[in-house]
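#struct-help
A.M.: can someone run this one for me? Single chain, 354 residues.
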Amino acid sequence: MTLQQFMNEAISPWMREDGPDSDIVLSSRIRLARNFAKYSFPILADEDDLDHISTFIRKEYENQSFQSYKSFSFIPIQDLTPVERRVLVEKHLISPHLAEQGHSSAVLISENEQVSIMVNEEDHLRLQLYFPGFQLTEALGKVFELDDWLEEKVNYAFDEKRGYLTGCPTNVGTGMRASVMMHLPALAWTQQVNRMIPAINQLGLVVRGIYGEGSEATGNIFQISNQITLGKSEEDIVEDLQSVARQLVEHERRARSRIMEQSSKRLEDRIYRSYGILSYSRIIESKEAATCLSDVRLGIDLGIIENVSRSILNELMVLTQPGFLQQYAQKSLTPNERDVLRASLIRERIQLEN
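D.P.: on it. Structure tokens below:
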């Protein structure tokens, strides 16, 4: 695929598929941090070493296929404009940290965008694989196979006692971050989520916003991931995360049922007001858009709003971000211009549904 193809579609092909509990769990992700043996890690490496790694990855894996994940595209970060970098961050194909890198940094992306491999980020390689819905175990099994495929040609930095060696000490061991992206509007509306976050943190997990560390949980979307990578197996880490995520799913379902029983008219009023704002606004800021989209997605999941696709939340959450708006307009936009274009695109998307 060409870079332009990755830029043109707000929603990745795999995101159009439903998975288990996809009314609450939007996606499951496994990320592995890996480094080449006998090369300094990116924080200390000289340009020659980083160039060697980038060139090697391009030569060995560009246009290659791994199982059903076909035709990996190699995209050098230095070749991207600031807007293009931001779009790839908004689509979760690269990290904000990689977007700030230049020479020797790159990303390999599969055709369906389910797999991306970041090159010379905080580590030499960061493999990430997504599955729709609640499929952590399936994602773990597949990322193991992807890891083995790469290891056929790459000698990883590994210590028998410490495990995989990484640029940041918090990733040493498995080098793994497992995460689920969850839509929790009922728990947020009833303010239960604020009480749950400290308890989740005490279990060795962390709750972040939609773009990971340092980001805000806009649109009632929360990313739950492990903090501990050393002293536990990958399977144990995933099992712990799954246990907590299952409880959150159950709590969210109960909260939705309780709201429907006790405050159904207030709930319907809120959902339809948000639907009206999205359908008719001429100017809308990103935070208000995210809140309204969350309400409408809840209305779709509860059967209050019919004949509107559930994937509308995933799609418009990306489509209405600053980077994608400017990519769509093919020019730099002021905040006010973005707010006007955001409202226009949302109206067009809802009209398509109708």
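A.M.: thanks! The CA atoms of residues 281 and 343 lie 6 Å apart.
D.P.: also worth noting: The mean pLDDT is 91.
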